[in-house]
Structure formats: C-alpha cells, structure tokens
Design goal:
Blueprint: E1 5-7, H1 13-21, E2 26-28, H2 39-48, E3 52-55, H3 59-70, E4 77-80, H4 87-100, H5 103-106, E5 110-113
Parallel strand pairs: 1-2, 1-3, 3-4, 4-5
Protein name: DUF5615 domain-containing protein
Domain DUF5615: 5-82
Organism: Vecturithrix granuli
Length: 115
C-alpha cells in the first residue's frame, strides 16, 4: 500500500505541486478545510484519513512525543526543519518515502528529513 501525505498548513505550496507532478497522493490541510485547526486537530485529521503528516512546524514533534508516551496512536509524521532542508531535497525525500515506504513503517513515529 502506498504512503499518502497530508500537508500541514505551513508547507510551501511548491512542495505539494512538485510531489503531485511525480504522482504522489497529497492532500493539504487547506484543501481539506482544516487550515484553521490547531496542531493536535490537524494530526487527528491526518489520522482519520490514514495519511502521514508532513510538517515543518516543530510543535508537532512535542505532540508526537506526548502521543508516544501516552500510547495514543498516529499514522506518522515526517518533519523537515525550514532552514536545514531545501525544497528540492524535501521533494526528493518525500517522493522516495511515498514510493518505497509502507504506512506501517511510519506508524507512531517521526521521520526526519533530510534522509
């Protein structure tokens, strides 16, 4: 089963566009009507849809740790620091993860970019 991605509100649009050009299934929080939700609700929405959340917001890292400690499951988070990873590298790494990864490999985990 392919990995599908859910983009946090702050992810640059160009990343979404480039991934779609590469055949990756991507849904943004904005397109989903979830752009005004808080971080916890955005992660919950990604989980409802069975999608891995991609974010550049480090607040999600704290939420992931909290969920790991309490046993609250989530589909997974892919995180890239805004200043440490180029847009091109994000696109290449996300494409690789989406095409060769399996959703269960990211379940209840945070994957950091660059790979």
């Amino acid at each position: 089963m392919a990995i599908t991605l859910y983009m946090d509100h702050n992810v640059p649009r160009v990343i979404t566009v480039e991934l779609r050009l590469r055949g990756i299934d991507v849904l943004t929080a904005y397109e989903d009507g979830a752009s005004r939700l808080n971080d916890m609700q955005v992660l919950d929405r990604a989980n409802e849809l069975g999608r891995i959340l991609f974010t550049q917001d480090d607040d999600f890292l704290a939420e992931a740790v909290k969920r790991q400690k309490t046993g609250k499951t989530f589909c997974g988070i892919i995180y890239a620091h805004q200043l440490r990873t180029s847009i091109g590298k994000c696109v290449r790494d996300l494409e690789l993860i989406a095409k060769v990864g399996e959703p269960e490999e990211l379940s209840n985990r945070v994957e950091f970019l660059p790979l």
